[in-house]
Structures are given as structure tokens and as C-alpha cells.
Amino acid sequence: MIYRNLVGDYGTDYLLTHPGRGDVSGTGLTWHELVRLADSPSSTAEGVEDTAARLLLLLPLLTDSDVSESVPARLSAALTSVGAPQETTFSTAKHLLTHLTRRSRHDPAWASPLSGS
Question: Which of 50, 67, 102, 116 is disulfide-compatible with 71, CB 3.0–4.6 A?
Fold first, then answer.
């Protein structure tokens, strides 16, 4: 992960490399790849070993638009594990997944200034 904080050029870049080859990939991860990486910390390497924290750190790399119905529950559990309020984690997980998978999502509880509500 590369965090850019230059004037007029800020953001986060994610570059994936393959161990042993060093090649850089601009593609993201499927949910299964993301979970495999999150759940398999190396005991010999430096870095975050907590699987919930790893899952959340890797989440911006998700490009899989077809995730199973069990994914929001797993993400919600990870959010709760790192201290997010339990009563909001499931809806937060669904919003994050909607954004990351670039799906449209309609929540009838949200008021819209365009509809006059």
C-alpha cells in the first residue's frame, strides 16, 4: 500500500506483488483470495497477525463483484473485533461491500432530497 500525500496528488495505491517474482499487478483480489491472505499470517514475517485487522486492511483490494451472502457477517465480525460498535457493524459492512463491489444499493430508510422526503 502506498499512501500519497502530495499537494494536488493524494490517495492510496495498492500494488500486489507475487513472492519470488516481484511482478506488480494492478488488479485487486477476489473475496476468497482476500480471506486466504487475511487468515494466513506468516509467523516469521513482520506485520499485522490479527486476522480481523488483516481482513480490514486488505478490504480495499476487493474487486470481486460477486460475493456470497456470508461475507457481510464475516466483515461485521471483523469490525466488531477491532472495536466498532456492534449495533452498527452489519450495516457498515453492507455499505462497505456495496461501495467496494460498485453495486448500487437502495436503503428505503434513507431520506432523499430528490424525492421530496
Answer: 67
Q: Return the HEC string of the chain.
A: CEEEEECCEEEEECCEECCCCCCEECCCECHHHHHHHHCCCCCCCCCCCCHHHHHHHHHHHECCCCCCCCHHHHHHHHHHHCCCCHHHHHHHHHHHHHHHCCCCCCCCCCCCCCCCC
pLDDT band at 113 (very low <50, low <70, confident <90, very high): low
> Residue 28 burial by CB count (10 A; 0-12/13-18/19+): exposed, middle or buried?
middle
Which grid cell is 102?
Answer: 460498485
Question: Considering the entire predicted model, what is its pTM?
Answer: 0.69
